[in-house]
Amino acid sequence: MKQKRKRYSPEFKAQVVLEILKEEKSLTELSSEYGIHVNQLRK
Fold first, then answer.
1. Which of 3, 18, 31, 43 is most buried per CB count within 10 Å?
2. pLDDT tens digits, residue range 1-43?
3. SS3 helix, strand, coil % of the chain, rounded to 5?
4. Helix or strand holding residue 15 (H, E)
5. Spatial separation of the C-alpha atoms in residues 28 and 3, rounded to whole Å
6. What pLDDT score does 36 carry?
7. Sign (positive/negative) of CA torsion 17, 22, 23, 28?
8. Are 20 and 27 in contact (CB under 8 A)?
9. How far apart are CA 41 and CA 9, in angstroms?
10. How far is CA 36 from the centre of its chain?
């Protein structure tokens, strides 16, 4: 059975970007917290 792709809301994306820009946590910590692969956070 094919798995559906996750779709993230613009609000969620903005929240993640703001967290990255704060530079308080590493990308690895943020990826664990939000359940997103590190490579997706780097784009």
1. 31
2. 788 888 999 999 999 999 999 999 999 999 999 999 999 988 8
3. 60, 0, 40
4. helix 10-22
5. 25
6. 92
7. negative
8. yes
9. 15
10. 5
Counting DSSP H helices and E strands in the chain, the numbers are: 3, 0
Task: List the structure tokens of 25.
Answer: 């946590």
pLDDT of residue 2: 82
Sign, CA dihedral 24-30-34-36, equals positive
Question: Which residue in 7, 6, 13, 11 sits closest to 41, CA to CA?
Answer: 13
Find, among 34, 32, 29, the residue nearest to 16 by Cα.
34
Rounded to a whole number of angstroms, the distance between the first and last alpha carbons of the chain is 29
